[in-house]
């Protein structure tokens, strides 16, 4: 796992690539490297996980020296692909997955991408056709687990990197805020890709690649979500469906244990992470290190660590509980803002659990994706209840926004600085329309696609990558393996919801509500008796308690009208009204206060300027 970056064309700032690499040192403290050729430069920082020797150094060249790669990710089927390439006559100098992918590209070209089972963002420099005008090829994994940003510089260069900090360190891009992205952030809690918070900087979309040559770029898609790729499964007996899903999860976890370093698990009190931990423990045959975050007795309603501890005891893991309090938020706030790279309504929980895990391991498994794939979120049930009336995309956006306590369209019109609001464009429906990948299929599959391409990709995965890699920790997500996704999108609704549409999925037990039916039944032989008789509990931080209480002084300081006016991102008059409300002692949504704070603090730390 690494941070990667590059510059193609433009002016000859010889130090730019070194600044970009330095900005991502936290992503890979084990090694760093650069490659320069004319007006082209590649850079990387390496977190060594597969092949810890110098043989895994990047940028890496083919034996012929005609193709170079920088690669951030893990390829879980590298051994199988390596054997096939060896049968074709290729020889390898290292045991790294980087060399396997490099050789695959040299043999298959861009057609290698669908063959990679894993998480990745990568760049190839291909000198074969014209060494004086090489082709640069960027690509990102199907679900967007690993980030990759790119931009066209004012000097005509193309710049790409794993993080915004590295893009800005190049000096080729002005730190000007993108109004459309700010509006999206306030309405949804995250920026919908390919937009970013900086004007002119885009995310490579998941399952897409970018070809750069001759001063132009071309974007193409190489994979998409699909329904019924296992058509026999939809009509199979339910017991067979459970068996197939259990076998696939077991095989996926086994594949994702690849590496030359120990691997831990991030164990919440939820069924998803506990099931993966159980499969890990069975495969490893020894104690798995597990980590969870809690908040103490005073905030027990938010704390799942008692459940996590019972899971850990049942599975015999070496468990560590991290208790986060408002003092830790105060002490770590600057580092949290630096780590997030782009603002988000969430991610702080991942920051602290990653910090604790990184003291012991380089890799951890996360249960992210179980709710997303198997209709586990409360707004999913709401959407199923009203699917036959109204505008589906508008209703979905509103339901998700209410659950995440983001701002309404009317709120945003008051919160954004007027000059930015006038340029913010689009609306919430249009935001989701671009993500509606399975619009022609049934409601359950459509909701799954909207969630994976929206909340999962833009918030969960982006936050996980930024906050874990800030501590040099790689996080793997087995539920979001394409094999598991293809199975989930081949299941009938009654495999996901046992009793039809649930009325109260957050109040009834898993068994009574029937949500995530197949995952619950996969977990039955793995987890302690009675685990399915408790309600689902969403994991979140007690921001409302902290930001209206012991951290209120920080809120007031950060959102001072004079301070906000200097940055030009938020509406100073609205912040003055907010100050008056807070002075009267009225309790405000903690998530909304955090979102406003993180916008302001991020803009200050990044030196962002409003668009003019």
The count of strands amounts to: 17
Q: Provide the spatial order of strands within the biggest beta sheet.
A: 2-3-1-9-8-10
Major beta-sheet overview: 6 strands, antiparallel
As a percent range, the share of strand residues is 15-25%
Radius of gyration: 24 Å
The helix count comes to 26
Give the helix/strand class. alpha+beta
Helix fraction, binned, reads 40-55%
Distance between the termini: 38 Å
Mean pLDDT: 93
Can you put this structure into words, describing what you see?
By secondary structure, the chain is α+β, with helices and mostly antiparallel strands. It is 41% helix and 15% strand. The protein has a six-stranded antiparallel sheet with strand order 2-3-1-9-8-10. A six-stranded antiparallel sheet has the order 4-5-6-7-11-12, with helices on one face. A five-stranded parallel sheet has the order 15-14-13-16-17, sandwiched between helices. Strand 4 (60-61) and strand 5 form a beta hairpin. It is globular, with a radius of gyration of 24 Å. The chain starts with a strand and ends in a 6-residue tail after the last helix.
Descriptive key words:
612 residues; alpha+beta; six-stranded antiparallel sheet; 17 strands
Task: Describe how the helices and strands are arranged.
Elements: E1 2-8, H1 16-23, E2 31-37, E3 40-46, E4 60-61, E5 67-75, H2 78-87, H3 97-108, E6 118-126, E7 135-140, E8 149-152, E9 158-161, H4 164-169, H5 179-188, E10 201-203, E11 208-213, E12 216-221, H6 231-234, H7 238-255, E13 263-266, H8 271-284, E14 289-294, H9 305-315, E15 318-323, H10 326-340, H11 348-357, E16 363-365, H12 370-373, H13 378-385, H14 392-404, H15 409-415, H16 418-421, H17 428-433, H18 443-469, E17 474-476, H19 482-488, H20 510-513, H21 517-523, H22 543-547, H23 552-558, H24 561-567, H25 572-583, H26 590-606
Parallel strand pairs: 13-14, 13-16, 14-15, 16-17
Antiparallel strand pairs: 1-3, 1-9, 2-3, 4-5, 5-6, 6-7, 7-11, 8-9, 8-10, 11-12
Helix pairs in contact: 2-3, 7-8, 7-19, 7-21, 8-9, 8-21, 11-18, 13-14, 24-25
């Amino acid at each position: 796992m690494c941070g990667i970056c590059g510059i193609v064309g433009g002016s000859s700032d010889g130090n730019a690539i070194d600044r970009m690499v330095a900005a991502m040192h936290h992503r890979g403290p084990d090694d760093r490297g650069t490659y320069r050729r004319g007006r082209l430069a590649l850079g990387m920082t390496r977190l060594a996980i597969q092949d810890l020797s110098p043989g895994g150094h990047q940028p890496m060249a083919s034996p012929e020296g005609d193709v170079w790669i920088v690669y951030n990710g893990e390829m879980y089927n590298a051994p199988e692909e390596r054997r096939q390439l060896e049968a074709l006559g290729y020889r390898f100098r290292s045991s790294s997955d980087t060399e396997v992918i490099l050789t695959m590209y040299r043999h298959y070209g861009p057609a290698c991408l669908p063959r990679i089972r894993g998480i990745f963002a990568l760049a190839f420099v291909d000198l074969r056709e014209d060494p004086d005008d090489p082709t640069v090829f960027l690509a990102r994994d199907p679900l967007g687990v690993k980030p990759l940003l790119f931009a066209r510089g004012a000097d005509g260069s193309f710049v790409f990197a794993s993080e915004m900090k590295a893009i800005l360190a190049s000096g080729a891009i002005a730190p000007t805020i993108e109004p459309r992205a700010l509006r999206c952030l306030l309405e949804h809690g995250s920026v919908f890709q390919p937009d970013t918070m900086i004007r002119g900087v885009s995310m490579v979309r998941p399952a897409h690649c970018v070809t750069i040559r001759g001063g132009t770029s071309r974007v193409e898609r190489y994979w998409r979500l699909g329904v019924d790729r296992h058509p026999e499964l939809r009509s199979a007996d339910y017991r067979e469906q459970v068996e197939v899903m259990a076998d696939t999860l077991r095989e996926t976890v086994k594949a994702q244990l690849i590496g030359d370093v120990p691997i831990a698990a991030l164990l919440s009190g939820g069924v998803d992470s506990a099931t993966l931990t159980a499969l890990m423990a069975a495969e490893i045959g020894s104690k798995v290190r597990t980590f969870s975050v809690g908040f103490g007795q005073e905030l027990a309603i938010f704390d799942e660590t008692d459940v996590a501890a019972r899971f850990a005891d049942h599975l015999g893991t070496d468990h560590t509980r991290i208790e986060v309090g408002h003092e830790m938020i105060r002490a770590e706030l600057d580092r949290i803002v630096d780590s997030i790279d782009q603002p988000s309504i969430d991610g702080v929980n991942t920051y602290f659990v990653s910090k604790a895990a990184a003291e012991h391991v380089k890799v951890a498994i996360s249960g992210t994706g179980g709710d997303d794939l198997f209709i586990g979120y409360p707004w999913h049930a709401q959407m199923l209840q009203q699917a036959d009336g109204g505008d589906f995309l508008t209703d979905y956006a509103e339901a998700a926004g209410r659950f995440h306590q983001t701002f309404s369209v009317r709120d945003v019109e008051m919160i954004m600085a007027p000059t930015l609001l006038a340029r913010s464009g689009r609306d919430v429906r249009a935001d989701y329309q671009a993500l509606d990948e399975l619009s022609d299929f049934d409601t359950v599959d459509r909701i799954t696609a909207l969630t994976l391409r929206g909340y999962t990709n833009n918030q969960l995965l982006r936050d996980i990558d930024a906050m874990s890699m800030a501590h040099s920790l790689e996080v793997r997500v087995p539920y979001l393996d394409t094999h598991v996704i293809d199975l989930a999108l081949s299941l009938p609704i009654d495999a996901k919801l046992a009793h039809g549409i649930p009325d109260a999925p957050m109040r009834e037990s898993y068994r009574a509500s029937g949500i995530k039916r197949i995952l619950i039944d996969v977990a039955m032989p793995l987890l302690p008796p009675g685990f399915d008789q408790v309600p689902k509990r969403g994991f979140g931080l007690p921001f409302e308690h902290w930001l209206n209480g012991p951290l209120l002084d920080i809120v007031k300081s950060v959102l001072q009208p004079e301070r906000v006016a200097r940055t030009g991102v938020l509406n100073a008059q609205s912040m003055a009204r907010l100050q008056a409300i807070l002075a009267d002692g009225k309790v405000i949504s903690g998530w909304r206060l955090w979102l406003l704070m993180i916008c302001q603090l991020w803009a200050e730390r990044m030196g962002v300027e409003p668009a003019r």
